Fold this sequence. Notes:
Blueprint: H1 2-15, H2 22-28, H3 30-46, H4 50-64, E1 67-68, E2 73-74, E3 79-80, E4 87-88, E5 93-94, E6 99-100, E7 105-107, E8 119-120, E9 125-126, E10 131-133, E11 137-138, E12 143-144, E13 149-150, E14 159-161, E15 166-169, H5 192-221, H6 229-232, H7 237-241
Parallel strand pairs: 1-4, 2-5, 3-6, 4-7, 5-8, 6-9, 7-10, 8-11, 9-12, 10-13, 12-14
Antiparallel strand pairs: 14-15
Amino acid sequence: MFKTLKDEIDAVMARDPAAKSRAEVLLLYPGLHAVLWHRAAHALWSKGWKLFARAISQFVRWTTGIEIHPAAKIGKRLFIDHGMGIVIGETAELGDDVVLYQNVTLGGTALHKGKRHPTLQNGVIVGAGAAVLGAIVIGENARVGANAVVLADVPPTATVVGVPAHVVSKKAADEKCEFLPYGTECNEEADPIMQTLEILGKRMTAMNARIHELETQQKTSAPDFGFDAANDAKVTPSAHKK
């Protein structure tokens, strides 16, 4: 039990630079509290004490803002950062070393009693505000960007963003980026705003080139009616009299 507790605390220390000591993590981190209470609730659920298990999960929801159904299966070293607003459904399954940020939903999209919540394999990172919905599988070391809505399987090591989510990268983290906060790319110098502006600049350049091409084609293919706007527009008084 103490070995498991130490591993859980070490996982927080490794992923949160704001954590100053193990005592601080143990006493003041609601994400850790929610995980530890869930393990107790899950044990009760597995033994058939479902009402007591649900009572524990509701108590934890009230005290931490994190709602984990006691039937959910959670692996080792789950790190819930900030935590408020997180929902993990009944048939959700999480592997080892998964990271969830605030306002993440692992929800179901069906009303039947079977598997209806997602499976997150080892090392998955889900950014703030993301919703992973349905009985889908998020592959090992995949990254889900903030506010993404994931409705289909995600391959291992991929990064998905958007609504609905789509793959923007399939690169695995290298040795310099063992942990990728908020599901970001493995590049400390990559500013997402500058990347977006660069993409928009390239599109504008391509659009301007296309407009210039169309204008050139229009000029070369326009019929000649023999009308000179500069000369024929000059109407003399004598022409009016005639």
